[in-house]
Design a protein that fits this description.
single chain; 259 residues; mainly alpha; 82% helix; globular
Amino acid sequence: MKSFLKIFFPVVGAGLLAFILSVSIRANGGLAATFTASGFAFGFNLFKLAGLTAFTLVGFQVLTGPFMQFWTAFGFNLFKLAGLTAFTLVGFQVLTGPFMQFWTWLYGPAFYRIHGFMGVFALAFSILHPVILYWALIASGIGIIEFSKSYGAAYYLGPAALLLMIVTVSTAASAVFLHKPLFQKHWRWIHYANYIIFLLVFIHSLRIGSDVAPADSPLRPVWWLFFLGMIAGLVYRRVYLVFQARQVEALESVAGKHL
């Protein structure tokens, strides 16, 4: 059973991410349409696809100045997929964090590193998300203030979440990968900060995310499942575990009086 679960959860996670990205690609008109559309439409499609492709295309953009219009459009498409990937990874972190005892039973202490890597990659894609957008806007001659005005306050929830994520991920990484004690001292604070990050990005994407905001988007149920999972984890951590600890303390106190 344990061997099955060790394979099952990564497959489910990868499948969920693939589904989320496929919704974005399908909304563009398919894989071919995503990569062959012209002008701003092409940019707005690919602005969703991220990963190593994003890094590669940014490098290509520097080397291919004569084709600025094409690469600018391509960047707008990648932008959305970077955001979707970042949120999914943050969601995975929030869902797994409260149940570390189970995950370490399943994968061993190495899961702490897996959890840490999820945070690092979530931060990487979160940084790619606005970087690709700003690059494309600059190349298109569109000001960031002009662009942000059309989205209202929900736009600024993204940068706020990113700044908070930089602090939490850098603190966690210093302990997980560099074995620094600062992380252990602030472990609980970091986990609560993850909930704030999740809520900021959750609202940000539901309000202005082109693939999530539409009422008929197939991603909205997934987003709400992430939200319910976050609530369940928070209740488990703050109610069940606290109640369980108090019960143990009460039993130990009673046992001590009878010794």
